[in-house]
């Protein structure tokens, strides 16, 4: 049952359905993969730029902005490589660290944004680092 609820949360987070995520969280659905072999719901939401879902999970104590997925990415890294400006700004305000390094490839959120052509995201991260 836990895996089914987790799958439902992930599907809603990936698809950008905050109302569904809210109902599932209230029913006790896990937001982290019980088998620990994939991304968490917050990582999926960040990858898709679903800022409202990230805020919902954090406010309900159901998400960790620093959680690292099986490939070594944080939510900030996922949002950076996909160019999601609002999500980046929200994650930074929620305490995401910009200097986390993906061990396998030595990437940071800023380097991933740059590799994927998101110069504006690099600038946002640099501005945040310089505060």
UniProtKB/TrEMBL annotation:
Keywords: ANK repeat, Repeat. The keyword Repeat applies. The keyword DNA damage does not apply. Pfam families: Ank_2 (PF12796). ANK repeats lie at residues 71-97. It comes from the Eukaryota. This is Uncharacterized protein. It comes from Hymenolepis diminuta (Rat tapeworm).
